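User: Let's play a game. I give you a shape written as tokens, and you guess the letters that built it. Ready? Here's round one.
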């Protein structure tokens, strides 16, 4: 390996990387060591400002686009070259942990910082991106920032999304853009060529690396996913006086529909993932029969034919399961399985091997912004282990030694992709 690249990789600093995780975890800290940092919230704004502060110390260029994606750039020697991008997201689940998303942002910052401290010149710019609203915990759907950036979805499609408190995305996004004046002006990328390549580091969010005693997952692709909102319409009635047989009970029938969906997605090999994680009940009172229930459906599978069949089965299954109520099924997200670029996959594997980091090739069970980026440029991901595979949970944990190994591999690959 080139001497100056070696120097840059050796400057990737475990303590600095860890301390930045600690500082970020204070923003939106919740009981049990967790983090609640919803997209476009005051905590999100605070996290953005902290990140921008670190970037400005090193005089990196900063920019933000109309959906609030944040960009931190170290220029290359070729002014016309498209950047190599790397990053992830800073928002969390309502009861999220200290590593999901933020690790990919801080690892990319660490790579930029180490390369900068070593004074390495790269031909292409290297650009950190912190994508807006990856989690979809507050505003649905998820992976909004990368969907808009890559042209897969239009910004306008998302502006009227509403959170559980009735706050409209347009307003929350407006506040986020206004909080960092002068940054919200970067045009959305033309879908044609937003980047030369994209590489995202992330905790695995599953148990495989830990079980197999590997430090890096060389990610080969992402399984497909279908999301729906299912609404069941019944009739509110008095819990004490209305005969059970005369009710249109939206909650009971929603539960019957969920049971039927569980049967639809039954899989002896345990490959299919089926989740109902969100339910809104109206009027949500102990002594009223529910008049309306909205619940989410999330189904995932790595095989295109299977995810297609399951997705198409949702509406008829729900309709068969309800009795006296009426239903409405709205698809909210439709992502086919994606395969990452073989050049990037090979590059990650080579870097891990050259650095002596135990690794294995694996698909991603979770969705990531890399899915949208893979449609517009050569893309890959680096996974690092998280304790017992626990994620989307306050107890999410990762070891500083593993985080820094991932950041070193990331730095190595970014240097190779950015060229000299
Ligand atoms: Zn994530």
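Assistant: Ready! My guess for every position:
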């Amino acid at each position: 390996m080139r001497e100056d690249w070696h120097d840059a990789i050796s400057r990737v600093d475990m303590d600095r990387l860890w301390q930045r995780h600690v500082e970020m975890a204070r923003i939106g800290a919740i009981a049990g060591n967790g983090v609640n940092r919803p997209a476009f919230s005051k905590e999100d704004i605070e996290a953005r400002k902290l990140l921008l502060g670190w970037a400005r110390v090193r005089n990196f260029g900063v920019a933000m686009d109309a959906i609030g994606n944040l960009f931190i750039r170290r220029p290359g020697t070729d002014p016309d070259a498209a950047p190599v991008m790397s990053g992830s997201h800073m928002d969390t689940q309502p009861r999220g942990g200290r590593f999901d998303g933020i690790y990919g942002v801080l690892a990319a910052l660490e790579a930029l910082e180490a390369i900068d401290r070593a004074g390495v010149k790269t031909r292409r710019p290297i650009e950190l991106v912190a994508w807006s609203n990856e989690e979809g915990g507050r505003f649905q759907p998820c992976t909004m920032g990368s969907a808009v950036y890559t042209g897969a979805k239009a910004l306008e499609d998302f502006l009227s999304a509403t959170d559980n408190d009735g706050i409209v995305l347009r307003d929350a996004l407006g506040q986020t853009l206004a909080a960092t004046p002068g940054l919200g002006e970067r045009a959305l990328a033309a879908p044609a060529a937003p980047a030369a390549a994209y590489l995202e580091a992330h905790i695995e969010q599953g148990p495989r690396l830990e079980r197999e005693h590997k430090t890096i997952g060389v990610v080969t692709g992402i399984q497909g996913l279908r999301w729906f909102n299912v609404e069941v319409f019944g009739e509110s009635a008095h819990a004490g006086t209305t005969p059970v047989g005369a009710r249109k009970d939206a909650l009971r029938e929603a539960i019957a529909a969920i049971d039927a969906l569980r049967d639809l997605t039954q899989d002896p090999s345990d490959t299919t993932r089926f989740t109902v994680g969100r339910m809104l009940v109206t009027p949500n009172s102990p002594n009223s029969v529910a008049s309306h229930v909205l619940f989410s459906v999330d189904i995932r599978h790595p095989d295109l034919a299977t995810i297609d069949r399951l997705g198409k089965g949702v509406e008829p299954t729900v309709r068969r399961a309800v009795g006296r109520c009426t239903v409405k099924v709205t698809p909210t997200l439709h992502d086919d399985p994606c395969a990452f670029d073989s050049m990037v996959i090979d590059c990650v594997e080579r870097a891990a091997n050259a650095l002596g980091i135990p690794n294995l090739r694996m698909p991603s069970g979770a969705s990531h912004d890399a899915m949208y980026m893979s449609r517009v440029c050569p893309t890959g991901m680096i996974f690092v282990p998280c304790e017992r595979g626990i994620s989307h949970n306050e107890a999410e944990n990762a070891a500083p030694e593993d985080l820094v190994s991932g950041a070193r591999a990331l730095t190595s690959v970014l240097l190779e992709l950015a060229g000299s």
